[in-house]
Amino acid sequence: MDITTYFKTDQYRRYRFILILILLVFIGFILRHCVSDFSKLTKNTAALSVVTGVTTSRDVPVYIEALGAVTPVYNVTIKTQINGLLMQVLFKEGQLVKQGDVLAQIDTRPYEAQLIEYQGQLERDQALLTNALVDLKRYQTLWSQDSVSQQTLATQEALVRQYEGTVKLDQGLLDTTLVNLNYCRIISPVDGRVGLRLVDPGNYVQTTDTTGIAVVTTLNPITVIFTMAEDYIPAVLKQLYAGKTLEVLAYDRQQAHLLATGKLLTIDNQIDPTTGTVKLRAEFDNSENTLFASQFVNVRLLVNTLKDVTLVPTAAIQYRPEGTYVYVVNKDSTSGLVPGQTVVTEGTDKLTDGAKVRV
């Protein structure tokens, strides 16, 4: 059999198939070994660059954040209680005033003249009453002696009661005039700051005027009214019923600056059904006048403080459907999170459990 005929036999084909199979097994073994060595090399030597942070332990305050408006304890519109000509305005716009300070003066001359008139009426009617009493005493004596009739005595007694009523009426008119004279001096009922002048001197002011002369708002202390979702009511009431004072922080619009620190005064007695919120009032001493009436503020209400909790940087927290987790850089590759451990805050996108890292 020549060599050409041999290559065409079945025996040759079987030998060639076995040889190819052995060669493929050998190549597969080599590739598997190389890939395994490469994975180990990558795992052991190719460290990923990461940024880390350190866990800490401390007390953590729990705040409720809300929007509020600065509301004075008293916001008083100064109005006249009598009709008259406004003679003087005795305050400067924006001035700080005390309770009892005179703010304006109304013309007193009409009431002074009325006072003289009523004093004269009172003196006249008092004289008539005195004379009627003398006559009554005389008639009583004559009636006891059967010198005058019962009707004459009764008429004199009625005249005395009439004069007594007139004297009381005169006294009432006199007292009313004295009160009106006192009302000519318009005073501040509270301590606070006066706003812009609403009426100029020379105008005729009346009790029916709606604008008033000025507005006085109290500044020290001052309050903030804010709203809170009804879901937080149980937590707040629990603290209030326990007699605890809840701290309230007031920040500016950008929440960049703390304006004042105060305390929660009270919570409203009903929930607004349209918004599902409830109103609360907090008080601030406002000694530095950092809060201004009707000012918009961001409020943070401290409702609880968690003791000795473990904290991690926010950037270290990772999320997946099963829950949140962090990567811990340990020397012994153990798991768990305790204060003082190093956690990865940047570079977590390529990390896997057990991967080498370069901090």
What is the strand content?
25-35%
* Strand-pairing-aware structural class: alpha+beta
Distance between the termini: 74 Å
Number of discrete domains: 4
Q: Which CATH top level class of the largest domain fits?
A: Mainly Beta
| SSE series | HHEEEEEEEHHEEEEEHEEEEEEEEE
- State the helicity in percent bands: 25-40%
What's the overall geometry?
A: rod-shaped
The gist of it:
The chain has 359 residues and is an alpha+beta fold. Helix content is 33%, strand content 32%.
Please give a structural write-up:
It contains five helices and 21 strands. With 359 residues, it is an alpha+beta fold. The chain folds into four domains: 51-59 and 311-358, no CATH class; 62-73 and 217-307, Elongation Factor Tu (Ef-tu), domain 3, CATH 2.40.30.170; 77-106 and 188-215, OB fold (Dihydrolipoamide Acetyltransferase, E2P) (Beta Barrel); 108-183, Helix hairpin bin (Helix Hairpins), CATH 1.10.287. The strands form six sheets. A six-stranded antiparallel beta barrel has the order 3-12-15-14-13-16. Strands 4-11-9-6 form a four-stranded antiparallel β-sheet, with no helix packed on it. Strands 8-7-5-10 form a four-stranded antiparallel β-sheet. The model has no long low-confidence stretch (mean pLDDT 86).
